[in-house]
Specification:
This protein is mainly alpha-helical and 198 residues long. It is 71% helix and 0% strand. It has eleven helices and no strands. Helix 1 crosses helix 4 and helix 9 crosses helix 10.
């Protein structure tokens, strides 16, 4: 009986983390614990049996979003296959899609958590290592020749954030298209300036 309860508690914990990861990307980390637990189908009191604090859950939700491909690459955003250039172009098209704009909860954690981490320095300090690694890994998928992919990722994330903020107006789709057009000129034979960290 104890083992079943322990297994159920672990399953509940994982479900809360996955739900939080999705809700935080969609609505921000200001989502209340009560709303989060209601969406998870659990009681408010169950939260404190599973997590030390809301900040602890935010850390785990960010880690989940970056570590679990299913958490941020569903329905057409899964890792593209083929040669690097084809995969890179497919990734750009999927990232800058109307679907991705309209499904922030299932979308990329780079754009999904950027605003909250920028507003909450204490949370950012705890989660920064995971977030930075996630940013570097996503940029590496876009790298071509001498270009490390950072500028491309910045273009994609910026366009997506702006498109979400202007949804409902024609400029939203114009922003996504403008970013796709800008990134079309970058390929294996034509690289953007390399990002320097030194």
């Amino acid at each position: 009986m104890g083992r079943a309860s322990k297994a159920q508690a672990q399953e509940n914990r994982q479900y809360v983390v996955a739900t939080a990861s999705r809700m935080f990307r969609e609505k921000g980390t200001a989502v209340s614990i009560a709303d989060l637990m209601k969406a998870s189908g659990l009681t408010h009191g169950a939260f404190y049996k599973q997590f030390a604090s809301k900040e602890d859950l935010v850390d785990k939700a960010i880690a989940h979003a970056f570590e679990d491909p299913a958490a941020h690459l569903p329905a057409g955003l899964e890792e593209p296959s083929g040669d690097h250039e084809t995969a890179r172009r497919t990734l750009i098209d999927r990232y800058l899609s109307i679907w991705h704009r309209d499904h922030a909860g299932d979308g990329c954690p780079v754009s999904g958590f950027a605003a909250d981490l920028g507003r909450e320095p204490e949370q950012a300090a705890r989660s920064q290592h995971i977030y930075i690694n996630g940013v570097r890994n996503r940029a590496a998928r876009l790298a071509t020749g001498d270009d490390d992919g950072m500028a491309q990722l910045c273009t994609m994330v910026g366009a997506l954030v702006l498109a979400r903020a202007t949804r409902g107006n024609p400029i939203s789709e114009e922003l996504l298209q403008a970013a796709r057009t800008a990134l079309e000129g970058i390929d294996s034979g034509q690289s953007a300036p390399r990002h320097r960290t030194d």
